[in-house]
TrEMBL record:
Keywords: Membrane, Transmembrane, Transmembrane helix. This is Integral membrane protein. It comes from the Bacteria. The chain crosses the membrane at residues 6-24, 31-52, 58-76.
Length: 96
């Protein structure tokens, strides 16, 4: 159990580091990202282990990776795009 938890934390930290490295504009709060990754992966590993029971280390690590990536996507911000100008109002059309 300890090795699975340690492995999940390391997987989550690796996912968070790669997210901040490859997409720095989407993860501006680096400390939040580096804290969310390991915690999310550990949560996924513990939840999967409680559902499947002992003896499924590969499935636990896969779930840790999936939950870590999913919860990191919640922290991500959308990319910065140039704002579009609103369309001109149609003549004779009333707007609220």
């Amino acid at each position: 159990m300890i090795w699975e938890a340690l492995g999940a934390v390391l997987i989550g930290f690796a996912i968070a580091l790669s997210a901040t490295h490859w997409l720095p504009d989407r993860f501006p709060a680096r400390t939040l990202t580096l804290a969310t990754g390991p915690v999310a992966a550990l949560l996924g590993a513990l939840l999967t282990r409680s559902i499947l029971g002992p003896g499924h280390p590969v499935q636990v690590m896969i779930a840790a990776c999936a939950v870590g990536a999913a919860l990191l996507s919640v922290v991500a911000r959308p990319p910065h795009h140039r704002l579009r100008r609103p369309a001109a109002a149609l003549k004779g059309h009333r707007t609220a």
